[in-house]
Every structure is written in C-alpha cells, then in structure tokens.
Amino acid sequence: MARKKRVNLAGFYHIINRGVEKRDVFLKKEDFEWFLEICEEYSKIFNFEIYSFCLMKNHYHLLIKTTDNNISQIMKHINMKYTIYFNKKYKRIGPLWQGRFKSFYIIDGNYLSSLVKYIEFNPIKANVTQKIGEYPFVMSSKKYLFSMLNFELIEKIDFKELTTEDILNIEEIRKSEIKEISKEKNKKELSYFFNNFSKEVATIKALKEGYKQSEIAKFLNLSVVSISKLKKIFFEKEKLFEKLKKEGLFWSYDKNIKYENFSESVFIEHTLKYGDFDDIKKLMQLFGKRKVRRIWEKTMKNDNRFIKINLLIARVFLGLNIESKDLKGKNDRFEKLKLFAS
Questions:
Q1: What is the model's pLDDT at position 180?
Q2: Are strands 48-55 and 11-18 parallel, antiparallel or unpaired?
Q3: Domains of the chain, start order
C-alpha cells in the first residue's frame, strides 16, 4: 500500500521525530547544540523560523513556520545531516530516526499557544525538571539565540499550567487533515542560476530550489567540499552584511535589502570607509586581498577625505610600504580654479 502523500504547504507545522527503537539520539550537550546549528544553517537556505522547540534525549519537537511549500525538504536535510554527524561521532551505521518524521499542519492559529505550551512542558511531563524554561534545550530557556528563533509566541504565553483545553486543542490538531496537497513545483534548470547570478549566489539559490550539493558540484565540475566551503563563506559574508546594515553603514539603501541582492563592490567600499578594524579584517578574509585592493584603488585610494584610513588599509591590511603623501589625490575644484586664473 502506497504511503500517504505528505502535506507540503507554507505555514506552521508541529514536527516530531524519535530515535529508531526509541534510542537516545542526543547523548551529550554538544549533540543538542549541533542539531540546533544544523537547523540554523538550513533556515537560511529554506527561509523558515522556529517558534518553539524541545530537544529530549530520544526525540524532538519543533514548531516551524515556512514561507514556501518545502517542509519535506527542510526536514529531510536536517535529519540526514544530523544522522551523518551522529553516526560518524559514535561509530555506528544505519538509520537514526524512527521512520518518517511526524508533521501536523496548523490550520487554526488559535491553537498555536496551546501547542507552544505543550512543547515547552515536555521536560516537566518527563520529570526532567519542575519549572518552565529551566531545562536548557527548550526555547523558553532563552539559552540559545539563533537568528532562526522567533520568540513572539513564547513571550506572549502564560506558562502557569497545561490546561485541559490545551490538551483538547492538541488532539484537534492531530486529528485534522488537509485535503489540498501542493504539487511539486517544477525546478528551474541549474544553468538558469549560473547564467544569471554569481557562482556564490547561484549556489545558494540552487540549494533553495532543492538541488543537492552533489548535483551542483557535478554541474560545476567541483568537489562537494568546494560547494560546502562556498556555502559557508556566503553565510559569513551575509552575517557581516547584516551586522553592518544594523549599524547603519547602508542607511541610504532599502532596509530590507539582502546581501545576495546587494552590490559586492559597494559592500566592500562601505566597509573599508566606515567599518571598524575587525570588520575590515573579516572583509579581507572573506573576499581576499586582491579583490579588496582592486576596489580600494578604484573607489577611495585617492580620496582626500580618507587619507588616515587609506594609510591603515595600505600598510596594515595590504602590506604596502607607502606614505600619506602617496595617497593624496588631486583636488579637482582647486585645479579648475587654477585653470581659470591662468
């Protein structure tokens, strides 16, 4: 008998997964934290947020909000990457999870508060702790502050007790069914991404489209390790961009603009002009001295307003043996006045 097709719509999902044979899947503190790191990584690729989570030793609960019809892709990648990590670390083989993950699509937003309470009360029900937020691997502990975590619901809920009404609401969620199943969207060809975007941005967009790293590596004739490094560098650049945007370095641009849609040269130029020492150091690491030097020479080397910072960039970051007089450009206004006076 064919298994039932999974609901795959944008919106809220309660996700539950257990270890195979009910075995423990989180053995040490770093295991719990690595699982959250994996969720954070894929939240940037698949654009989802987590509104509540509870990681117990042998199972987990997630309340995820997706912006696309991709919950199956999200959980497939998270579970697979954690399995690879766990099996390698503890020298085991075979499946780690007990079949397919369970997912419940939340039709009625009124049930969300009951669901959050249910998830956060899990350690209390298991007699692991007696107080909400005391157990570290629940969202209400606020011990972990990843960008994927949205505390909007957590902060509004009164966690005094899990009521009978809450339990009934959970049962309603589990009984509910959705008859509308989204169709698998047609993937764009890989060539589309790499013909229209930089290699870095194209790789991220292709991953969001659902392509595997191995497929992208084969298309580009690169190793999977190279694609993994490229992805990691992209997220580091994005992180620096968001930090500088928050600090107001790109105040004249749309506040909602993302790194992938921003001019690389403008990003580098603004960071050189207005970033602090550590920002410029990170910029050099991520983009490389050759590219940064090319943009520096083109946009600000001869700008009299930045003589001090130019000297710092030249000597400290680019290793150039030059003096401040070598960085002074011509004053165009003065040259024009001198021409008129002659």
A1: 39
A2: unpaired
A3: 11-175 (3.30.70.1290), 186-262 (no CATH), 280-342 (no CATH)
CB count in 10 Å sphere of residue 309: 17
Give the global pTM. 0.71
Scan for tokens 């934290």, then name that residue. Answer: 33
Sign of the CA dihedral with 24 first, then 25, 31, and 33 last: negative
CA angle 176, 184, 231 (to 5 degrees): 105
**Which CA distances in Å does 106 have to 66, 109, 115, 173?**
12, 7, 9, 7
- Rounded-to-integer distance, Cα 229 and Cα 223, Å: 10
pLDDT digits (tens, 9 = 90+) for 121-138: 999 988 999 888 899 999
Evaluate whether 200 touches 230 at the Cβ level (below 8 Å).
Answer: yes
At 184, the amino acid letter reads: E
The pLDDT of 72-94, averaged and rounded, is 93
Question: In this structure, what DSSP letter does residue 20 have?
Answer: G
